[in-house]
Amino acid sequence: MKKNSLFISFLFLYSLYFGQLNGPESIDFDPINNRYLIANSSNGKIMQRSSNGTITQFVGGISPNPYGIEVVGTTVYACCGGKVLGFDLTTGLQVFSVNLGATFLNGITHDNSGNLFVTDFSAKKIYRIKIATQTFNLFAQNLTQSPNGIIFDEPSNSLVFVNWGSAAKIKRCSLADSTVTTILTTSYTNIDGIARKANGDFYISTWGTNSVYKYNNDFTTTPTLIVSGLSSPADIYYNDLTDTLAIPNSGNNTLTFVGQSTASLLEQNFSEVAISPNPSANLLFVSSSEKKIARIELINESGIISGIYPVEDSFEATIDVKNLQKGTYFVRLYDKKQILIGIKRFMKVN
Fold it and tell me: How confident is the prediction for the chain on average, in pLDDT?
């Protein structure tokens, strides 16, 4: 996207969102309901942005105020002081609460095994929470800088997290043994958020330059400036469905989107993918009208991968679901470049 086009887009978003957001700290995408969710860290609300750009309240009265948020299955989880709370994506009702006794939980991510991971900014720790049992344990401690944004990196089976302060470091925490290593010591000050694109690229937001930068999958190349002129860019999110980077500006209560049209491209991705029959007891037929399918994943309501089905780069596939437990699942389709091309919900019946 050309620089002048990005600037015009930013001005439009600023005028639309000013006054509706209050300390937007984190943004995530709810693919089933086709909306972005934004944590308002200054007034105890999670807001929702529809595909046409309208912003309304999703949940209010959250105490302590929400910071990092993460959508997993049918729930959005929020870091709230020393607790993690969860809210049903359909009703908005609180369905999850774990008090970690932490100091200031800030960043949050999840793996494919039903775990949440949260950073304690003030205590310099990382916690692991098992969603199904609502239990937790201290996963990493004695970190040298204050950890902020965090993201699960499946290829390396690790957590990649960014840190606050001068010469801010980007670090990796192994999921196998909790070992923490430094990937890179940057020249930036106060890195807030980190996001990962499906192709392996990483994006970081920094308050020091009020910008977002892109790194390759192993952080070995010179970072690319993606967008500048932001205002305290916080916890960012990369939407692979629309090839769009979403940025909450906590300094001036706006959102910035870098990439394709959020509404039109998302609708295109959903319309090109079909599943049947739905509900299904035995076989599920999956098709894509425009992009060939290379892999299908089935995700249960807890965010755990229940099945992975390689596909011979085809527009159609049939998968056997008869051994799945009864319940709601999400079907995620990827192309041969491991780019997410669609998500559908289906009901497994007996």
Answer: 89
User: Residues with Cβ < 8 Å from 222, sequence gap 6 or more?
Assistant: none
> Which residue segment(s) compose the domain that 339 sits in?
272-348
Structural contact between residues 235 and 255, judged by C-beta atoms closer than 8 angstroms: no
Q: Which has the closest alpha carbon to 76: 63, 65, 86? A: 86
Confidence band, pLDDT 50/70/90 cuts, at residue 132: very high
Res 273: pLDDT: 87
| Residue 241 shares a structural domain with residue 288 | no
Among residues 57, 107, 100, 97, which one has the least CA distance to residue 82?
100
Q: What is the pLDDT of residue 335?
A: 86
- pLDDT band for position 291 (50/70/90)? confident
Establish how many alpha carbons lie within 13 A of residue 291's alpha carbon, considering only the half-sphere containing its beta carbon.
20
Looking up residue 25, the CATH number of its domain turns out to be 2.120.10.30
Q: Does one domain contain both 210 and 288?
A: no
pLDDT given for residue 17 in this prediction: 46
- In this structure, what is the dihedral angle of CA atoms 311, 303, 285, 241, given to the nearest 10 degrees? -70
Domain termination residue (choose one: 191, 225, 260): 260
From CA 306, how far away is CA 324, in angstroms rounded? 8
